[in-house]
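2024-03-11 09:14:02 INFO queue: dequeued item Aspartyl/glutamyl-tRNA(Asn/Gln) amidotransferase subunit C, len=97
2024-03-11 09:14:02 INFO validating residues
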Amino acid sequence: MAKLTVDEVKHVANLARLAITEAEAEKFAEQLGAITDFAAQLNELDTTNVEPTTHVIPLVNVLREDVAAEGLPRDLMMKNVKEQQDGLVKVPPIMND
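2024-03-11 09:14:37 INFO prediction written
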């Protein structure tokens, strides 16, 4: 596999808005090259009888049943409201004319 060049590392760092030094670019080029070489070894594995998966162990979401319930009575809720008008919560405007 082709090694990453220092210029490629600098380009990717620039795209990610990362400031790196020349020494860091050289270090990362070597490290990222080792990572891509290792990942390339996986392409040598025979995976013809391996089913594609998104996760190696089965995952199940454990969620409670969504059941409609009675809300708070309006009178009780409105006791905590600073300003109200016609039974509704009054909030400051967010847009001016």
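2024-03-11 09:14:37 INFO annotate: The first strand starts at residue 84 and ends at 85.
2024-03-11 09:14:38 INFO item closed
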